[in-house]
Write a structure and sequence with these properties.
Blueprint lengths: L15 E3 L8 H10 L4 E8 H6 L2 H5 L8 E6 L3 H14 L3 E6 L4 H5 L10 H14 L4 E9 L5 H13 L4 E9 L6 H4 L7 H10 L4 E5 L5 H9 L4 E4 L1 H5 L7 H6 L8 H19 L3 H5 L12 H8 L9 H17 L1
Parallel strand pairs: 1-2, 1-8, 2-3, 3-4, 4-5, 5-6, 6-7, 7-8
Length: about 325
């Protein structure tokens, strides 16, 4: 595979990516993000091996061709099951398979995967090797920097070293510990302190690996600081979801592309066309898609009124194009008032 491109010739650098986020980064959300950035890597929500091996494969793996480069994140801990799911991912056309070793939720812990896998680096290595042997696309790992209150650097260093020996070349480092008791998943994204220096030390100790940092990065200044520090990439989470227009500047700033000529209106119209396409092809209601673009005008005059119209349940019976017209009219009235 040519370095820097995926098998379709798309940019596959991990320089900027949008994190996998449960209930948020479904294929409709990713379609919006791809409209805004051609080059950022996009990740699915975490999909468990059980859901793929015993559930509706199409529902979990269907995506639009426009989404490339796109990665499937898997949750699981059985090497054979993960290998089979990796094969499914490659068959469906995903550009990467990512193993979740960072989710701290109790449900995930009961399934013996997610962050608790960091206690078993050799098992993670076995999982990675099984997946890498099964597919030709990159197999990557997303993990925390520690478990509980143990902040010893040696813990995460040895984890990365063991998994790298199994063939993993890309590590996405959420720069917080995962506290497996006493905190909700939301609190685990906010309370354990951010320690970006740990990701930087991993890069210094493993210069041949691709080290991507994740956690609390919500501005170009914050992103650039990590890239300037020598890290290979930055993964952005909720800041990208709540303010998707931020992505419109990424290609020029981080991938050397020409400045974007996108307008908010053009993106909204493209999303309405997508809503119409999805309704015709799959019966998807427009509001299941529109929920992901409510932050599109974040910080702009009239954004609140525009958002209220798009999220008004009383309008669900109307075609998406009519709702767009109402939202635009309501925003214009607010600005003029």
């Amino acid at each position: 595979m040519k370095s820097g491109t995926d098998r379709r010739g798309n940019t596959s650098s991990w320089r900027l990516s949008v994190a996998p986020m449960l209930d948020w980064t479904d294929r409709h959300c990713r379609y919006l993000h791809r409209l805004l950035s051609r080059h950022a890597r996009l990740y699915t929500e975490m999909v468990t091996t059980g859901a793929l091996l015993h559930g509706d494969v199409t529902r979990h793996l269907l995506f639009s061709a426009e989404e490339h480069p796109v990665a499937l994140q898997l949750g699981g801990s059985e090497p054979a099951d993960l290998a089979q799911c990796a094969r499914l991912a490659e068959r469906w056309g995903y550009d990467e398979v990512n193993l979740n070793c960072g989710c701290p939720s109790e449900r995930v812990q009961r399934g013996a995967f997610g962050a608790c896998l960091m206690h078993e680096p050799q098992l993670v290595a076995d999982c990675v090797k099984a997946m890498a042997d099964a597919v030709s696309v990159p197999v990557t790992v997303k993990h925390r920097i520690g478990i509980g209150r143990d902040e010893r650097y040696a813990f995460v260093r040895d984890f990365v070293g063991t998994v790298a020996e199994a063939g993993c070349r890309v590590f996405i480092v959420h720069a917080r510990n995962a506290w497996l008791e006493g905190l909700s998943p939301k609190e685990n994204r906010e309370i354990p302190p951010l320690r970006y220096d740990v990701a930087r030390q991993l890069k210094a100790d493993f210069p041949a690996l691709t080290i991507v940092v994740n956690g609390g990065l919500d501005s170009d200044a914050a992103v650039q600081a990590q890239l300037d520090a020598g890290l290979d990439g930055v993964m952005v989470g909720r800041a990208a979801y709540h303010n998707p227009w931020w992505l419109a500047g990424w290609d020029a700033r981080y991938f050397g592309a020409a400045p974007s000529t996108l307008t908010h209106e053009a993106v909204e119209e493209a999303m309405v066309r997508y809503m119409e396409r999805e309704a015709a092809a799959h019966g998807t209601p427009w509001y299941a898609i529109a929920r992901h673009m409510l932050g599109l005008r974040h910080g702009l005059p009239g954004a609140r009124r525009w958002r209220q119209v798009w999220s008004d349940h009383r309008l669900k019976h109307l075609p998406a194009a009519e709702v767009m017209a109402l939202a635009r009219a309501a925003r214009a009235e607010t600005i003029a008032a």
